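My main concern about presentation is that the manuscript never shows what a single data entry looks like. The format is easy to grasp once an entry is in front of the reader. For illustration, here is how one protein appears when written out as sequence plus structure tokens:
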Amino acid sequence: MLLGLLIIRLNKTDGAFIFGIQSTLLHLVSMIIVVAWSFTSVYKQLLL
């Protein structure tokens, strides 16, 4: 899914390509934050 989006954005102009990189990075950061938050909540429940 992400690879397809990256390839589609690669075929566009440089500005769109840079925007694609930024949106992909934002998506990755949000995924990492969600995973870390769920992991810490599960960890706290295990501690209790």
